[in-house]
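Progress report, Aim 2. The chain analyzed during this reporting quarter is listed below.
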Amino acid sequence: MTGCVHSRSEPVIAPEAKATKDAKAPKFRAIHFDHVDPQKCPQFENARREWLRALTAAGLSDERGIFLQAGSSAFLTVHAFADFAELDQLQKARRVAPVRLKDAVEKYDRDSDGALVPPHHSEVWAAADYLGYQPPEGALDERSFEAGYMLIEEVYPGPRGEPYYSTWEEVRGALEKARYPLTRLSFSSTYGSGHVVSLWLSKGRAELAAAPSISDAIASVLGKARATTLLEQQRTGVVSMQRHEILRRRDLDSP
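Predicted structure tokens for the chain:
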């Protein structure tokens, strides 16, 4: 079997990581994408864990944030920040550990970079709360979820893309009435691809597998004909869409 294989156990979500509807998350996310050669996933993960041990022993952090795995062999680091003055401070903080741990960081860079394949890039995402959805209870965020999927959508600019946005209010209302169990976090890749990125999040694989499709959920409220029409109208505003399964990888997070 190739690719990065993660345990299928359902970890307990730490109480301090749980999101609430009233929590106000920072507006922006600094995102970094690492695409790994599927044959070299163990090399990439082992390099990360060795580097984390060095950081922990020194009482330092590399300030990369949290890790998500997308598909079998891609990783995202996610670091929330409130404004660009904070991003500037983050960039300065990221320089500290490499200066203090020169030998360890050289080995980390050599071993982890040797496992990478293109594309390899960074973006800044801005929260698009107007495209979000929270279930009636147990709302999640990128820190507290366990399993889900990521939609990366290229939306037409201007009036051609308007149906994508204008249909969402009715879709969200139907999901609320259906008590749909997953959380949707949406972002605009403001500095990067320009895509709309949506994370549909669950408490674990069992909940994700049990959740009905969006079309079935809204059809249960609006009827099949209206649901079909609404989703077809929404898709007219989209140029292309990618879907990737995602997992929360706490074992790779920064200290």
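The CA atoms of residues 216 and 224 lie 8 Å apart. The chain has two domains: 24-124, 125-246. These observations will guide the mutagenesis work planned for the next reporting period.
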